[in-house]
Specification:
The protein is about 10% helix and about 20% strand. With about 220 residues, the chain is of the alpha+beta class. Strands 1, 2, 3, 6, 8 and 9 form a 6-stranded antiparallel sheet that branches. Strands 5-4-7 form a 3-stranded antiparallel sheet, with no helix packed on it.
């Protein structure tokens, strides 16, 4: 949180778009219909592209936290430096690369023709390293071609009061210098908030954070 505060200020909200990411060795994983391994390399995207439009101006910071040493062969993160300056790019659900590989398959992928793909660099890490980047930074990950399982946290933070982009999921105040009594330090309360959200969503309300449509001409 000290690192986060140095980047977005002292009033810090934990965005609900957060994950524990587990990437097993690709050779042992089952394959999809297109022949791709499940949980294989993550295609290039922007985190701004997986939230609703109301969060487009949110100062959202992604913090990728390595739980294991993650060299290149274990499927480390890859980023395109400076790509956050180009705004939100088109994400495709059905993009086909020039070599015929389908990289969409329902996930959100930015066509390589829309960003400087040749500038992509890998970011190998040691256990407990942090990688912080802007929510419009183009990034993905490499395939895990090792014999080890890659573990990481994908956490996101933003200034208190800004839209999260997933309003039906619960976030919480992680740090507030102005109102420290609002900080959430009780894991059971955090769990309860997710149980409440699950109960509400199970009613079948039509909620979607996917802003992208199949068949966009920019995806051809």
């Amino acid at each position: 949180l000290d690192v986060v505060e140095s980047l977005i200020g002292p009033e810090i909200y934990s965005n609900p778009v957060q994950h524990v990411r587990i990437k097993p060795p690709e050779k042992y994983l089952p394959k999809t219909k297109s022949g791709k391994a499940v949980l294989s390399a993550t295609q290039c995207h922007q985190d701004n592209g997986v939230v609703t439009r109301e969060a487009d101006d949110t100062n959202m910071l992604t913090v990728w936290f390595s739980l294991t040493d993650t060299p290149v062969e274990m499927g480390c993160l890859k980023v395109v430096p400076g790509s956050h300056q180009n705004g939100l790019l088109q994400h495709c659900l059905d993009y086909v690369q020039g070599n015929g590989d389908v990289t969409g398959n329902g996930s959100r992928t930015i066509p390589e023709k829309l960003f400087a793909a040749e500038k992509t660099i890998p970011l190998p890490t040691k256990r407990s390293d942090l990688i912080c980047f802007h929510n419009k930074t183009v990034h993905g990950s490499l395939a895990n071609v090792s014999e080890e399982v890659r573990w990481s946290f994908d956490l996101r933070y933003q200034p208190i009061g800004q839209p999260t982009g997933r309003p039906w999921f619960p976030g919480f105040v992680a740090r507030s210098r102005a109102n420290p009594e609002t900080e959430l330090g009780d894991a059971s309360r955090w769990r309860e908030s997710w149980c409440e959200a699950r109960a509400q969503l199970s009613r079948g309300d039509n909620l979607s954070f996917n802003r992208w449509k199949q068949g966009d001409p920019r995806c051809a």
